[in-house]
Every structure is written in C-alpha cells, then in structure tokens.
Write a structure and sequence with these properties.
The protein has 131 residues and is an alpha/beta fold. It contains three helices and seven strands.
C-alpha cells in the first residue's frame, strides 16, 4: 500500500491512499502514472483522524515517501500502519532531516522493530525501513 500516494504511486503498490487528490491518467507524463496495478485508490482519507479503510494484517509492505511526517504522522496513524501490516510485514518511509528524530521515536513507541535509516540526497532526506 502506498500511503500519501499523491500523483506518483509507488510501482509496488496495489492499494493507494491520499488525503488530497487522486490521480487521473495523464499520457503527457509517461512513466509517472503507475496506476495499472492499483486495485483501490481512495482520496480524502485523513489517516490521523479516521484510520485506514483496510482489515487487520492485510499488507506485506506499506510505503510512504513524502506523506509521513509532512502531511500526517501521529501515534494514531503509526498504529494504523502497524495494524494493517502482516506479522512479517515492513514499512518504508521517506522523511526529511527535521522529521527524522520524531519519526524514529514514533515508530519505536508503536512497536516497530529492526529500524534502519538510509541517508539520501546529501543527508537532506532519509529512507527508514522497519518491521
């Protein structure tokens, strides 16, 4: 699942959620609209307030590059991500330097394990993986 998908849905996602606008096909931007695998796209879902519209233990992977820490990211949304992940599932987050410590504390508080941090873009952005 791609959480906070925006207009660039992760190519591994079969489900996508965004608080704002759902994408539409746009042939003028080739390769950007990876919607062929998307089975479910929901717009207007505020994970911080409403939770995720999925059953428990549904996903092997949840990705959020640019959403978590910018548009959402509190204890409720972290718990929701944990809830929809399978027991051996993992999360991949992209966060900026300013949100790194907060995000790490939030993941730890929510019970995520095996947290790894990978700096990118000269240390301005970080990819975080956890189980």
């Amino acid at each position: 699942m791609d959480l906070g998908a925006g207009f660039l849905v992760d190519s591994r996602a079969t489900h996508a959620i965004d608080k704002f606008n759902a994408p539409t096909e746009n042939p003028s931007i080739p390769g950007k609209w990876r919607l062929s695998r998307i089975k479910y796209y929901s717009q207007g879902v505020d994970v911080d307030k409403e939770g995720l519209p999925y059953r428990d233990s549904m996903f092997d992977l949840v990705v959020s590059f640019g959403g978590f820490g910018w548009n959402f990211g509190n204890i409720r949304s972290a718990k929701e991500i944990k809830r929809v992940l399978k027991a051996k599932g993992s999360i991949e987050l992209g966060v900026n330097k300013e949100n790194l410590d907060y995000t790490l504390r939030l993941l730890k508080r929510t019970g995520f394990r095996n947290v790894n941090i990978f700096p990118s873009d000269g240390g301005k952005l970080y990819k975080i993986t956890a189980e």
